[in-house]
Amino acid sequence: MQARNEAWCREFEEFMILKNLSPRTIKTYGQIVRYFLKEYEEKYPGKELNDEIARSYLIGRYKQGLDWQTVNSDYSAIQKFFKNVLMMPWNIKKIPRPKKTRKLP
Questions:
Q1: What value, to the nearest 5°, has the Cα angle with vertex 73 and ends 67 and 75?
Q2: Which of 25, 40, 81, 96 is deepest in the core (most CB within 10 A)?
């Protein structure tokens, strides 16, 4: 399973390079997807990766008290990974983008 995840990470990195994303974005999104896949392996051994797992992961990140920007970056990276590497649909109704928090002046 770990070999498959490493292959997915390489494929995702190559996709981002071909999309001409910045080196910083490639590094950040790569770390996010690696962390997501590590947690997937630990929590769901033997279960097929799906959007419910991604949804659960993002909810968990929010419940950890992370900033909107962090959860939004996680969302963007995982969404790109699902759509462009796994070629799986991303259900916007089931997994909506986090709403930006607004601070009062």
A1: 105
A2: 81
